[in-house]
């Protein structure tokens, strides 16, 4: 049985624990059979390094083609968003030390590449601590990772802001804290989570938005704004950075957070009960979102039972795993979670 699911008998009934063990055992057995059937799967480090190399190289190529004027901005943005979704899956696996576990240089190099190509996210080394806690206490009040992705929040302008721009949300949340001490503490926390990559990433985005809003407003008012050579050169760099790195990651992160925050239950989940932590969301209308987070809604529930399988193997085990999960009572496409603020038991799920 997966170590993350060893739970005190006082928390779970024997029936629930047996069900968790059964799901974990069946999916693990199936993935092991796939490893035996397809020998290539035994080269896990090579596969991870190859996906990373192809993804980073693809981003560089698309960026170069855009800068040279060979492809339009939208094509670069969409392609790089898809590539960063692969890199996110690699980072998730790396956090669980699924690649180069004993080769620290290669492992940390891959972690660094994940951070550079997705600079709007906190350091993967910092995220490791949060993610391990997420597995242990998924859906409870101490699950910071789930809260960051908006799980448990009511739907409205505040949640959409958090999905789209976590940095501004964090600062606004700090400013409205009840005391000055709390304001300072939360502000420092936001800056720490985003330093240094995220500060450059969000700073680039805000300068881009501010500059183009100013020039657009000026033109509407009949002013002919002429930037200085220095400003023009700076904005050329920022415009390119937004197309190549920032905009792709904003799309990817919104899609990932939207899916992740709704497949995880939050607020009334029994501690360490994998049967209540997640659901499977694989309805057809979710595909525009799933596309930019590598089918996360369909496969992440599997990960909460079997941690040792890398992302590509979860995709392969999904058809079988879905049957096992359904037999264990895991929910599928419970869209009532939107109304329940991701609570598990407030009302019955939609059918």
Automatic annotation (TrEMBL):
<dbReference type="InterPro" id="IPR005804">
    <property type="entry name" value="FA_desaturase_dom"/>
</dbReference>
<feature type="domain" description="Fatty acid desaturase">
    <location>
        <begin position="71"/>
        <end position="334"/>
    </location>
</feature>
<dbReference type="GO" id="GO:0006629">
    <property type="term" value="P:lipid metabolic process"/>
</dbReference>
<feature type="transmembrane region" description="Helical">
    <location>
        <begin position="160"/>
        <end position="178"/>
    </location>
</feature>
<protein>
    <submittedName>
        <fullName>Fatty acid desaturase</fullName>
    </submittedName>
</protein>
<keyword id="KW-0812">Transmembrane</keyword>
<dbReference type="Pfam" id="PF00487">
    <property type="entry name" value="FA_desaturase"/>
</dbReference>
<feature type="transmembrane region" description="Helical">
    <location>
        <begin position="40"/>
        <end position="63"/>
    </location>
</feature>
<feature type="transmembrane region" description="Helical">
    <location>
        <begin position="233"/>
        <end position="251"/>
    </location>
</feature>
<feature type="transmembrane region" description="Helical">
    <location>
        <begin position="190"/>
        <end position="213"/>
    </location>
</feature>
<keyword id="KW-0472">Membrane</keyword>
<keyword id="KW-1133">Transmembrane helix</keyword>
């Amino acid at each position: 049985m997966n170590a993350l699911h060893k739970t005190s008998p006082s928390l779970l009934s024997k029936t629930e624990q047996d069900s968790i063990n059964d799901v974990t055992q069946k999916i693990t057995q199936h993935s092991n059979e796939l490893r035996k059937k397809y020998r290539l799967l035994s080269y896990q480090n090579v596969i991870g390094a190859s996906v990373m190399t192809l993804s980073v190289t693809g981003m560089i190529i698309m960026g170069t083609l855009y800068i040279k004027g060979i492809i339009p901005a939208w094509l670069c943005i969409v392609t790089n968003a898809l590539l960063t979704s692969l890199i996110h899956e690699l980072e998730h696996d790396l956090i669980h030390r699924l690649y180069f576990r004993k080769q620290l240089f290669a492992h940390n190099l891959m972690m660094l590449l994940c951070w550079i190509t997705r600079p709007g996210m906190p350091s993967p080394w910092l995220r490791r601590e949060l993610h391990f806690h997420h597995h242990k206490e998924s859906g409870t009040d101490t699950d910071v990772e789930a809260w960051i992705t908006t799980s448990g929040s009511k739907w409205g302008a505040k949640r959409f802001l958090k999905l789209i721009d976590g940095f501004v949300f964090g600062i606004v949340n700090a400013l409205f804290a009840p005391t000055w001490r709390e304001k300072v503490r939360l502000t420092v926390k936001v800056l720490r989570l985003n330093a240094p990559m995220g500060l450059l990433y969000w700073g680039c985005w805000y300068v881009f938005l501010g500059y183009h809003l100013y020039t657009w407003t000026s033109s509407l008012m009949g002013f002919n704004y002429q930037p200085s050579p220095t400003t023009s050169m700076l904005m050329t760099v920022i415009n390119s950075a937004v197309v190549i790195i920032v905009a792709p990651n904003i799309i990817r992160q919104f899609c990932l957070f939207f899916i992740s925050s709704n497949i995880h239950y939050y607020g009334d989940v029994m501690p360490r009960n994998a049967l209540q932590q997640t659901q499977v969301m694989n309805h057809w209308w979710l595909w525009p979102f799933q596309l930019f987070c590598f089918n996360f809604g369909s496969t992440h529930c599997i990960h909460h039972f079997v941690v040792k399988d890398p992302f590509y193997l979860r995709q392969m085990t999904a058809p079988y795993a879905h049957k096992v999960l359904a037999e264990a009572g895991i929910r599928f496409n419970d869209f009532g979670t939107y109304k329940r603020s991701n609570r598990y038991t407030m009302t019955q799920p939609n059918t």
